[in-house]
Design brief:
single chain; 66 residues; mainly beta; 1 helix
Length: 66
Amino acid sequence: DYISRGHLRTKFIKPVYVNEAITAKARVVNANENPDGTKSYELEVWAEDDDGVKRTVGEFKVAVGS
């Protein structure tokens, strides 16, 4: 569903260096059921380093289902 009905937008807010570990995270901020039977989700997405400092931020939207 991501490839055919998803949209990801991100922005680097701090540099990410070679061999530095970062962790991708997400939080659902909205979920709706559509008239066609699919469900739409909006997520806040980000990546952070081992100290919890955000390096990227963004949003992800997708419709899933039939």
